[in-house]
Specification:
Helix 2 (33-54) runs antiparallel to helix 4. This protein starts with a helix and ends with a helix. The longest helix has 28 residues, at 2-29. It is extended. With 92 residues, the protein is mainly α. The protein is built from four helices and no strands.
């Protein structure tokens, strides 16, 4: 069953997907792994800084019924993204 699905997807979508992703894979293949790891961590950290410090709190927390620190989406963004950063640092 899995082979049939793979054959179907390759027949109908393979050419278009290869045209898009092969150049991207070739370009990313030239980047060293250590640099890719730092870029991944940087994206997470920059997003945490952007949401936690730069975005307007009224915009981020629009419509929340309770005005508690525990319902602040900026805090939960940082909390939920921290494990990703830790995993990137641990496995680099």
């Amino acid at each position: 069953m899995e082979d049939a699905i793979t054959a179907f997807c390759d027949k109908f979508f393979g050419h278009a997907l290869r045209a898009v992703f092969v150049p991207i894979n070739d370009a990313l293949g030239m980047i060293p792994n250590w640099m890719a790891g730092w870029c991944g961590v940087g994206i997470f950290v920059l997003t945490m800084i952007w949401v936690g410090l730069i975005l307007n709190p009224k915009y981020v927390n629009r419509g929340r019924p309770y005005k508690s620190i525990w319902t602040d989406l900026r805090l939960w963004t940082v909390i939920s993204m921290t494990p990703h950063v830790v995993v990137y640092f641990y496995f680099r």
